[in-house]
Amino acid sequence: MTDTLPEIDLSRPEVLRDPLTAYGQARESGPLARLLIPGFGPTYALTRYDGARVMLGDARFELDATSYMRPEVPEDCLPYMRTMSEMNGAEHARLRKLVAPAFTPRRAAEFRPRIAAIVDALLDELPAHAGGGETDLLPHFARPLPMDVICALVGIPEEDRPRWREYGATVAGAAGADFARAIPGIMAGAKAAVAARRDHPDSAGGEVVGDLVRAQDEDGDRLSDIEIVTLVWHLVIAGQTPTNLIANAVAALLSHPDQLAALRADPTLMPRAVEELIRWCGPAQLAVPRQARGDVELYGTTVPHGAKVTALISAANRDPRAFDDPDRLDLARVPATGHLGFAHGPHFCLGASIARVQTQVALTALLRRFPRMALAAPAEELQAVDPGTRRLTALPVTL
Predict the structure, then answer these.
(1) Range 142-167 burial, b when 16+ CB lie within 10 A, else e
(2) How many domains does the chain have?
(3) Which tens digits make up the pLDDT trace of 82-93?
(4) Domain, as residue range, for 108
(5) Model-wide pTM > 0.90
(6) The domain spanning residue 302 has which CATH number?
(7) How far apart are alpha carbons 30 and 4 in whole angstroms?
(8) 201 part of a folded domain
(9) Cis amide prior to 335 (ω within 30 degrees)
(10) Cβ proximity of 229 and 191 under 8 Å
(11) Is there a domain that residue 155 lies in?
């Protein structure tokens, strides 16, 4: 590994406090950097938009089990831990093809009224949580909303959804020990959802589980019992992605009154605004690390076989080579798309369309229902210490 690469030590306090600045400095130093990640070893990082985009779609870099810090789980849960996220090539494509029809832009648009109903129900409850006129949107809106939406889409029985909210909060807290303890319940919940759909194949809702059960019934060789349960739990837990996006977006809008005023004046800006918010303050700071399948030459550096390679998503999304005045939040930015907030390539976020629609509906309703809403604490004080995910520890607002 060459010594001339910019180096980012993720254990350093200044990096933990402000990873966006550290990543941006590395981007301007060169297109390739070296990350030092505690417990993970040295990792190469593509810092700029073009390099990051190419790498994310390059078959020479693969996701596998070593891409994730997997918690210790009971022996009987192990067969269900290998998810679609760590598969590649034909194996990944086969499973993704089975679930992709439920996550198309068209299906997301058709699901909008159900999302709106879930949003309205949560907003109806919000004033009850506002002691002294102040409430925390993270536990009372941004966190339960995506879980309720994905449970409805996937097909988790309604009576089980409060338990899945708890599972989701545990996973979102990034607490390894708590996550490990929750795993048996998560697996049991996925098995129960599949069993419920088999018992009531004609019941309304649950598009994903219904599609998977039908696919298995039509051709049992396409999908094993282990695969169907694994797909269900993984899709539900991964469906929490909009939690941090919605929270970050609300904090950004309330911290930029000019942009908020523009959005209020022209609600048709909302789809474009959501794309810009994903680019500017999306949750993804680092892509899940890939493994080099062989020696690969990157910008004059030989990345050896087996080395870990990632992309600095937040730095790429603010690369001045790809975006004009990239550090400025501009809800009317043209073009609005092109960011890497949902990654790129074969592992492009499956739920991107649902996340987009969900965020549009959530922000529209929130701003309409509470026109005088304001942050109850400075936005910079709410940021979690997390170099991998841009997220908030709380979102206190006055209504």
Answers:
(1) bbbbbbbbbbbbbbbbeeebebbbeb
(2) 1
(3) 999 889 999 999
(4) 7-398
(5) yes
(6) 1.10.630.10
(7) 10
(8) yes
(9) yes
(10) yes
(11) yes
